[in-house]
Amino acid sequence: MPPLKYLKVKSYLEAAAVKPESAMRMPTVRELMNQFNVSLATVNRALSELENDGVIVRRQGSGIVAAGKHRTVARLQGKAAGVRNLLFAYNDYPEESTWKMVHTIAHYSRLQGCNMVDCKIYPDTSTESLIEFVKA
Question: Are strands 114-121 and 84-91 parallel, antiparallel or unpaired?
Fold first, then answer.
């Protein structure tokens, strides 16, 4: 029966990887172990396969995040009167402090009536492409 537990963890993480918040944080190994009542080996097997498939990225000290190709960047549509837009750009594989900062900025943006677009910058992201994204 161990393969069934491993498949449950894997399918849960695949579904979680497409959610927007997965760009910033996914469940930790310990959280997954407790949630599914499974061993470390079971969780690691699911994580290893998902990482090999390019669904997630694991970085020591940064945690687990969804890989960029499984998420889409939301672009704001239209120009509503009185609506302000805020672009927050940060590096790929941010530290936990950056994740907390993104959540805090998003919260305060909503309180102030702003739309926030968080933009993860990858090593091959050019400054010109970021400027074009902001102009769009």
Answer: parallel
